[in-house]
Amino acid sequence: MSDTPSQPRAGLVPLLRLALLPALLVYVLALWLSGAAGIEAELVLRDLAQTCKYPLGVGLLSNLGYLLWMAAAAIAFFGALSGVTGARGRHRQLLLLGGGFSLLLALDDMFLLHDRYIGANFLYALYAVFAVALLLRYRSLVPALGGLSFLAAVVLLGSSVLVDEIQSLLPFRYELTQLFEEGFKFLGIAAWLYFWWQAAAGASRLGANS
Fold it and tell me: Which of 68, 110, 133, 210 satisfies CB 3.0 to 4.6 Å to 90 for a cystine?
């Protein structure tokens, strides 16, 4: 079997099947679902800050958090599926799971699933179980690839959840607890992104032994 990394397929058919048609499907589906919910198309198409006429800084850190989640998902999926990194076996499985988990966290953060649609306690417990299961299932790979950054991400994100859960019991104003909650979260996302960058970059070094 050749060790040459697989290359993205060229030509019109792959372009349509892998890029344009999925994008068109998402575009049409978003407009259709929004219309069914009574939301005007203009509100779906325009940027939220433009629609609400808010200054640039409103929601800035939250938006940056979305980008970091998505970057982690993209890096993990690229490392698993592109063939460029050489990831295979358990290493490839880890990257696929990390990509899917990161994408779920991004969607939760973007659409406030834990606040509006699914119970926060249920989702937080699910995330904790998944993170522990990931660490146990790949206990030899995670430390080798970047155990410190994985641990830092879990501790920081867990601290954010903890502050959110007990903020009503703390003798501080809401604005102050928000600074800590969102600060822990933002740093945790950065550490999470760094771990998956390490995991993808380490494929060529560890892939053969995983």
Answer: 210
Residue 7 pLDDT: 62
Is the per-residue pLDDT at 82 higher than 80? yes
Write out the two tokens for 79. 């490392």
* Cβ-based neighbours of 151, under 8 Å, separated by 6 or more: none
Q: Are the CB atoms for 83 and 5 separated by under 8 Å?
A: yes
Contact 41, 31 (CB under 8 A): yes
Gap between the Cα atoms of 159 and 164, Å rounded: 9
- Per-residue tokens: 103: 């994408």
Task: Give the CA diameter of the chain.
Answer: 64
Q: Kindly state the tokens that stand for 193.
A: 């992104």
Among candidates 2, 119, 96, which has minimal Cα distance to 87? 96
pLDDT at site 119: 75
